[in-house]
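Side project, low priority. Logging it here so it doesn't get lost.
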Amino acid sequence: MVVESSLSMILSYPRGLVMMQAHDVLEVINQLENVDVSVWLDGGWGVDALVGTQTREHSDVDLVISLDQFALAQQALHSIGYEITEDELPTRFVMRDAHGRSIDFHTVTFDHDGDGVQQLQDGRLFYYPCHGFQGTGQIENQIVRCLTADVQVLCHLGYEPDENDYHDMHLPEEHFLIRLPAPYSSLQ
């Protein structure tokens, strides 16, 4: 569902027109952490953080947060110009600013074992293993929390990968010697 916004300019930017730069990602992470929102990098920026260098351009940043911190995250980022443009809660939501920078939030609830549980749009559940939240990486010399390499691979399964996905999965294979499952195993 697309959310109506007073900043109609936000909706006029095609996805991917504006890239999320490293300083943009750090601004978002720091803004969230300043109000005690726990955040983990996922997706392309998450993989780049794990290897400690930006390896490609990114049209957005994927972040995992606890569903119960949704309102706090939304308020914190609204204060620096981000508005919700897609609301698919409890699965995910997207925020974008007037410049077209985009944040794709994946929301989870933590079970008694510490696993992150994401309710998908079709009602199924996706489990982020608790050890996956122990990852750290680096963006521009700042240590950031991110999903571990093996959980990054897990998050890249169950859909048809694009060129960026193949690129991103090559990095955990190369840097962490992770054996990749299909469809990425053809990279070996």
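Brief comment: The first strand starts at residue 40 and ends at 42.
Revisit when time allows.
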